[in-house]
Amino acid sequence: MTELAHKKCEPCEGKTKSFDRDQAKDYLKDVSGWRLTEDARGIYREYVTKNFMAAIKFIDKVAAIAESENHHPDIHLTGYRRLRIDLSTHAINGLSENDFIMAAKINGLPVELKG
Fold it and tell me: Rounded to 5 degrees, what angle do the CA atoms 96, 37, 10 make?
């Protein structure tokens, strides 16, 4: 688990400047599996879970962390087990440390993947 996973998301409410592409790339090194969006305003990770219920259980775990951190991802479930999680800080229309904290915490969750 990375150092980021031990941090707490801080409210920014538009007062923080979003990360530039280089800052985002530096932080990506600490959250394996996550990728930068083309416009560098978000990060995402894709999963193919074992089945529908495995996806739902994982979504529930992500939702619990999101609520406790007050930083909520966009979650997309398609094809009954293809899951994509998108993170960005909406208040600043880009990335902040909070997104990488959430990514690190999500990486620490167990997920049943397609074998």
Answer: 15
